[in-house]
Write a sequence for this structure.
């Protein structure tokens, strides 16, 4: 029986370019409240995929939807304030 071996390394070497930059990490941190609010909305929607939504489920979805909208508004206002300020600092 002949063994077939891979001609390249079994594990891809880690490239320095794969890590997020400081600017990308700052952007993720900036958007984290929105990400968490959207996850909450998705969780609420997933909960009712296999059954009819109860009144409590509907409230939970509405609350999560309102939270997403409120966080989007807050982030938009923060971004607008950062742009309008001298130097663009938030």
């Amino acid at each position: 029986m002949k063994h077939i071996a891979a001609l390249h390394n079994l594990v891809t070497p880690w490239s320095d370019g794969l890590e997020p930059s400081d600017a990308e990490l700052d952007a993720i941190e900036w958007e984290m409240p929105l990400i968490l609010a959207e996850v909450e909305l998705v969780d609420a929607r997933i909960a009712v995929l296999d059954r009819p939504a109860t009144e409590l489920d509907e409230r939970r979805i509405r609350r999560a939807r309102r939270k997403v909208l409120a966080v989007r508004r807050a982030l938009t206002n923060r971004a607008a304030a950062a742009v309008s300020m001298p130097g663009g600092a938030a």
